[in-house]
Amino acid sequence: MDHAGRALRRRREGKTDYRQRLRLLKSGEVRIVIRRSLKNIRIQFISYGEHGDTVVAQAMGSDLAKTYDWKHATSTTPAAYLTGMLAGKRAKKAGIESGVLDIGLQRPVTGSKIFAGLQGVIEAGIHCPHNESKLPSKKRLEGTHINENIKNDVITLKEKILGGT
Question: Topology of 9-163 in CATH?
Answer without folding.
Answer: Nucleotidyltransferase; domain 5 (3.30.420)
